[in-house]
């Protein structure tokens, strides 16, 4: 052996992390880890070096967090198992006891040496430790790798490296290289051992060299010349890569070997290259007697990766600048939603909300507030229906419009609202439809007939295309047709209406269960078990309330805070309903066996109606059953609509009294009037009956709250 | 007299309305008329014609709605009294009984003839009627004028008109013109009669012509030649202006005169011009005997002004396109506010709100919601303080930001929010200040000291410059300094804080009354009669809660509807407080003698705290008294701050325990700990006392709601 032995130095690993890994880690943190800081098994890989001037790289990629390690690995790729600690805060990241974490990894490696397991699976000699803190709000990832290497009591030394060719001569070197190749990529296909980075090379009877597993050491040593081969990630002419450190300790510990020839295999086009592969004759100082035996602590470990400045410190990957801003916005928006599931509402189904399609009828104060709250909940599909344009008084109360939208006569509200959503969140799927909702009792002139029919057909189509219909208009009667369409289509209808300082927010009972045929409804105010709709408290059909409205009745004369409150509550009512296992059929809290079960109902039980009063800062929940003679949602009306379609709608629009005839309300009125006659015969116009007087004051009836 | 007499035709008035009149009418409608359709006395004016090709114009201007008619009128100007009916709806405007309205005006004129009053004040012969419908949302004004003319039983006839010069010869004509001028604009200054459009011209003894009042008719007629003169708004060579009609009827009725020479005076540079003034010899058919006497109805009237197409119909003034869009937006925004006063809250003081200056500490979800609701209330002065930039997750929840604001690292929130307000409502006075609010317990390094001092000084200045301070931050301890500054400055502080699905909105009790010297505070949890602040429930000083916060604690993990609700309630709480006669010192509802008095409290009584829970859709109002040992608002702390300023603040910021020493809380803790020792001697670390354990979980204490 050469006398000029010097301390053997190993090229450390450098970590190389695919952006996809960070993305995946973000998801993993949000969806699986949440607040856990437990160790997560991950894996990376390295290859035998195949390029000059490229350091030893340990690579992590998207699949590194997947539980099933790719095995057998692709040719020439060595898998490395690792442990990830993702810390919850930067402070935790900074103050974690890193020595302890590293020592724990070293201990695992040491055990594989002591038990001999590493001889059977030499990949166990390589491990890595990864500490991370994911600053997901900013798409920044702080991280620190360690590649634990066990320190021998006295350093290994080696004579200067020679190339394989120089050491063996060209022919023998080629033969040796071929033996390595056939070991690592046998023609019979990858073997279990081929992902292991170390093997033996043994002189054969025919003076050739043959690869053998590490477990063959004792026998091969007895038979004759044997050396160690490694798939070497390093490409330096004088030094081996980092994995050799722990392997040499194994040789010293298990084999008690004091000299060892090591062939560091490097590749060219996937084959061992004898000209860059090197041969090292290593001197292994004998380990002290009893070193690290039994209860003793394992050897000290080292291996923290320096940062980009070459100093011992963490690195930071800032994905922000490299990401498509739209994608950045998308993940940022999802972030807050997923965070809710960490502590507050672990069973929250946020995906259900991203897919739901919401139709907003009305893009005024309520429509804007509802749309914004939907965005906050991650709802991606939002359609507006409105027939007006943005007026100068709108922007200060209708949160999707600006001064510019009012110029030149004002943009159509529906499209302006949709455009605003795109400006807020480019990934939203928003559309605006300028459309007048046909209203019962509003006279339809012959020239308008075609337009009303088209508007009705468009509205029917829109309701059919969406899952939830929000009724956010400013007149009572404009709510009739959408209420009927939602009832007939089994859609969830959420209704919000404002007074001066009071509001009503409610969900309509779902009519998905309305059978197409029903026995003759019992006359009289019988109720069903279904929850009511906006019209269920009425005993008159909706009429035109816009005729002769004064200015304050035409405008939104409401305390400005009201729309924000009612709009937000409407959306929260929707989300609570959708998160309920029974969905739109969710019973009211008093009748809900799941009420109070936080796991089943992450957003709580779902009231039927919420009424609020700003004057007293009061709010209460109410429940009302469906009215079997309701002009909007009763089985009678739904069936008539299903059977006769537009023909029926036109009749109802032109003469709302037809609805009263159909539902039996006319009869009810007659008997009510007759009753009044009995009591007060002088009241001849029949309007004395409380039930018979149409509510025509242009205010919603619940204003008397 | 000439034989070629033909039916005399009169040039009708044309209305000319200054834009300022419409603006004034808008204000009048909103502030005074509101829903009233009562007759409103107004006035217009016309002048003797001074230009060819200009029709007879009756002018209305800004002052036309003022009650005091300008009198005596400026030279050559004839005031005309009129009646305005401003209708509430277009429908009322269309369907009003116009004949009856016109006839009522005619009756008034007729009575002045019958009683002879019109002889004393001939201006009474001219009246006008104005029907309007002000579509204030669109800045459109529908209107229809009538200039009531009484119809004689048989039309008046006249020989062809001659110019004054032609009729009298140049010299006599000039003399006659001078007589008119000295009547209308006597050198002794305007007379009571000079605003009257008619007078007599009487031949004097010296063969000159002299002006006399109409009341001189009988005497003058007896004395000799007399003719009627009028300030004629018409410039036609053959016809007189409209005012002559009713005058001729007066002559026929009162004077029973059958022929009358009329001099229609027209002017040039303010003087009667004999060349364009004309002379008419009018034949007045005798009125039927007993015509319109006693109980009889007055003569039929006519005089509706045709529209621009020359047809009988209303006109419409569309001010929208002519107005500066910014001004349009301003009046539109005021519109909704003033409308509230029509029915809902007649005693609402909206001007108080326009002038109030609001400081919003925090421009996140709450800050945005608060600012938008303030805009809705017409608040014009809004300042934001925030130290962060717009992140990608913000726009969907923070309603003043858009995707664009997040690019390039994100705009500073405070300025981005202020810019957004300008885009929404250009007349707002909004500013953004990027500033970190110093927080107790957050360590201040020596290099930071200067910045913290500067930030504190800036915050002190901002609080001093504003009337209301909104506390809308996301940490507990950032509320301490603003709470103290508001307490020391006697400012109204409104506080809003969010949990996952609960919120707290409160007003701090005002400390304007904190005396500079107070007897030693009684130790122990004595309470004052003042309402509490956010810290009054605490027995520990605020500490750094941001150290080691996990991602969900750093982000706004709240149900998205929550900020909209809490932000709106915070502003409604502010407006209700400001509308209370006691302002910030308003007692809570239970202690408020005005509670329930709608006239005194248009927005209702003012709770101290509103707590809400989205899980149960519940909300309740609470009251809590100030804590005499509060670390933020107690007299002890306020006095210490007033006395020692920054020196004291720095101590408190660096070591919050100093606050506990100052307020006597330390002593309280010791006794609490001692008590615990008594009960559980094994608990030696003294943390067993419920009062002693600092609340460091990063959640606001009210989360346990």
UniProtKB/TrEMBL annotation, chains A, B:
It comes from the Eukaryota. Residues 677-687 have a biased composition (Acidic residues). Residues 8-323 form the Ubiquitin-like modifier-activating enzyme Atg7 N-terminal domain. The keyword Calcium does not apply. Residues 675-705 are annotated as: Disordered. GO terms for biological process: autophagosome assembly; autophagy of mitochondrion; cellular response to nitrogen starvation; piecemeal microautophagy of the nucleus; protein modification by small protein conjugation; protein transport. GO terms for molecular function: Atg12 activating enzyme activity; Atg8 activating enzyme activity. Keywords: Autophagy, Cytoplasm, Protein transport, Transport, Ubl conjugation pathway. InterPro entries: Atg7 (IPR006285), Atg7_N (IPR032197), Atg7_N_1 (IPR042522), Atg7_N_2 (IPR042523), ThiF/MoeB/HesA (IPR045886), ThiF_NAD_FAD-bd (IPR000594), Ubiquitin-activating_enz (IPR035985). Residues 338-582 form the THIF-type NAD/FAD binding fold domain. Gene3D superfamilies: NAD(P)-binding Rossmann-like Domain, Ubiquitin-like modifier-activating enzyme ATG7 C-terminal domain, Ubiquitin-like modifier-activating enzyme ATG7 N-terminal domain. It is found in: Cytoplasm; Preautophagosomal structure. One of its GO terms (cellular component) is phagophore assembly site. The keyword Protein transport applies. The active site is at 555 (glycyl thioester intermediate). Pfam families: ATG7_N (PF16420), ThiF (PF00899). Belongs to the ATG7 family. E1-like activating enzyme involved in the 2 ubiquitin-like systems required for autophagy. NCBIfam families: E1_like_apg7. Homodimer. This is Ubiquitin-like modifier-activating enzyme ATG7.
């Amino acid at each position: 052996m050469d006398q000029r032995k010097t301390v053997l130095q190993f090229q450390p690993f450098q970590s190389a992390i695919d952006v996809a890994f960070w993305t995946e880690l973000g998801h993993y943190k949000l969806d699986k880890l949440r607040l856990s800081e437990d160790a997560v098994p991950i894996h990376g890989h390295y290859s035998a070096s195949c390029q000059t001037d490229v350091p030893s790289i340990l690579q992590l990629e998207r699949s590194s967090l997947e539980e099933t390690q790719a095995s057998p690995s692709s040719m020439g790729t060595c898998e490395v198992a690792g442990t990830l600690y993702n810390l919850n805060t930067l402070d935790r990241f900074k103050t974690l006891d890193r020595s302890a974490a590293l020592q724990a990894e070293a201990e695992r490696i040491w055990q594989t040496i002591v038990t001999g397991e590493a001889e059977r699976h030499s990949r166990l000699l390589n491990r890595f430790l990864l500490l991370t803190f994911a600053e997901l709000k900013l798409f920044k990832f702080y991280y620190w790798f360690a590649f634990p290497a066990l320190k021998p009591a006295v350093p290994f030394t080696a004579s200067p490296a020679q190339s394989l060719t120089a050491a063996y001569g060209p022919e023998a070197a080629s033969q040796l290289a071929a033996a390595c190749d056939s070991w690592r990529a046998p023609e019979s296909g990858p073997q279990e051992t081929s992902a292991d980075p170390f093997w033996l090379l043994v002189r054969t009877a025919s003076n050739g060299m043959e690869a053998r597993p590490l477990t063959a050491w004792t026998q091969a040593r007895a038979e004759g010349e044997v050396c160690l081969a490694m798939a070497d990630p390093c490409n330096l002419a004088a030094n081996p890569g980092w994995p050799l450190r722990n392997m040499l300790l194994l040789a010293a510990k298990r084999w008690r070997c004091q000299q060892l020839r090591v062939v560091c295999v490097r590749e060219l086009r996937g084959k061992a290259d004898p000209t860059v592969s090197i041969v090292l004759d290593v001197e292994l100082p004998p380990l002290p007697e009893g070193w690290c035996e039994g209860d003793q602590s394992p050897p000290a470990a080292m291996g923290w990766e320096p940062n980009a400045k070459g100093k011992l410190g963490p690195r930071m990957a800032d994905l922000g600048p490299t990401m498509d801003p739209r994608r950045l916005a998308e993940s940022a928006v999802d972030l807050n939603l997923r965070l809710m599931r960490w502590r507050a509402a672990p069973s929250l189904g946020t995906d259900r909300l991203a897919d739901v399609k919401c139709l907003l009828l009305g893009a005024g104060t309520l429509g804007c507030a509802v749309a914004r709250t939907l965005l906050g909940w991650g709802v991606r599909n939002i359609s507006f229906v409105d027939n007006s344009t943005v007026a100068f008084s709108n922007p200060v109360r209708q949160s999707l419009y600006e001064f510019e939208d009012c110029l030149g006569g004002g943009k159509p509200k529906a499209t302006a609202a949709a455009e605003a959503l795109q400006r807020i969140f480019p990934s939203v799927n928003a559309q605006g439809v300028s459309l007048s909702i046909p209203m019962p009792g509003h006279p339809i002139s012959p020239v308008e007939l075609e337009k009303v029919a088209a508007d009705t057909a468009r509205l029917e189509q829109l309701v059919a295309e969406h899952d939830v219909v929000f009724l956010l208009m400013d007149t009572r009667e404009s709510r009739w047709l959408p209420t009927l369409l939602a009832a007939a289509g089994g859609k969830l209808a959420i209704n919000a209406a404002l007074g001066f300082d009071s509001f009503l927010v409610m969900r309509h009972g779902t009519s998905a269960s309305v059978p197409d045929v029903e026995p003759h409804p019992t006359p009289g105010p019988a109720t069903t078990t279904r929850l009511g709709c906006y019209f269920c408290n009425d005993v008159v059909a909706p009429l035109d309330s816009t005729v002769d409205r004064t200015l304050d009745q035409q405008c939104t004369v409401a305390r400005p805070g009201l729309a924000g409150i009612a709009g937000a509550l409407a959306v929260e009512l929707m989300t609570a309903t959708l998160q309920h296992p029974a969905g739109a059929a969710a019973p009211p809290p008093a009748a809900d066996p799941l009420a109070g079960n936080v796991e089943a109902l992450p957003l709580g039980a779902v009231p039927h109606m919420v009424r609020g009063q700003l004057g007293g800062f009061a709010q209460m929940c109410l429940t009302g059953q469906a009215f079997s003679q309701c002009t909007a949602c009763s089985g009678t009306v739904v069936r008539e609509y299903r059977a006769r379609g537009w023909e029926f709608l036109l009749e109802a629009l032109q003469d709302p009294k037809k609805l009263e005839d159909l539902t039996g309300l006319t009869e009810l009125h007659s008997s009510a009037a007759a009753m009044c006659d009995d009591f007060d015969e002088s009241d001849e116009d029949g309007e004395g009956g409380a039930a018979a007087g149409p509510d025509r004051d242009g205010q919603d009836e619940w204003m008397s709250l």
